[in-house]
Predict the 3D structure of the following.
Amino acid sequence: MGSILLHALTAILYLLLGVYFWRTRWRGSEAVGVAIWERFAVLLPFGLHSWLLYLDLFASPELRFGFGHALSVTLWLCVLVYWIESLFVNLQGMNAIVLPVAAVCAFLPAVFAGLATPVYAQHFEFRAHLAVAMAAYSLFTLAAMHALLMALLERRLHGESAGGSSKGSGLLGGPFANLPPLLTLETLLFRMLGIGFVLLSLTLISGVFFSEALFQQAFKFSHKTLFAVLSWLIFGALLAGRRLYGWRGRRALRWTLAGFLTLLLAYVGSRFVLEVVLNRSLG
């Protein structure tokens, strides 16, 4: 019961802050400065979220890790990345998007506890592989959210330019006034894609070593492996296209979303079907 209440408290605090940033950043028509207390207020639910993940994934005698925990860890890392980036770029307007999603995902482990993991989940190799994989997933989740927001901003910007309301300034008003410029978001997008690609590569490599150490089998084909490799190829092609041909704009956004959805199917989708629909272990 105490764990459920703590999950609920974390979700409520995330949600309240999300509503606050929506009212102060998205409903206003002018850019608003960043208050120091706003940055540190996010650390309160984030700290509770961190404690809950520690209890569930490390302090618990039986490790349970399902799609609820996967999403919770992903949004935990998303909040962390945004908080760090906000120290250098004004990203307070993004909190109105990220924090409500974090509220939902932080509460999911209380509803979907996940399946009991096999004995090999206690090994260091598995925990290292899991940590790297979750870091990669979180960055690509954040990149996908960036891509959706950039698509919205680009459409709004082109609409204002066509209507003449922006007077050719290229600036957005209304709720978009407190968001970073489109070029800044694009720079952040490819920075996250680059780091995420490295982490995804390490995930695949560590998965091979993990399989060799525990099963004496370097490669075990499954639909999860297939989707992970496909997403790696998609993101690799996107980064190569960016470097060689200067890909950007809608093409880059489409490739980002395609790679993210493929990666999502590699783990979260399969775990959801097995835990909720089929209610059986991966075996």
User: Anything to note?
Assistant: The chain has nine helices and no strands. The first helix runs from residue 2 to 26. The two ends are 29 Å apart (CA to CA). The mean pLDDT is 78.
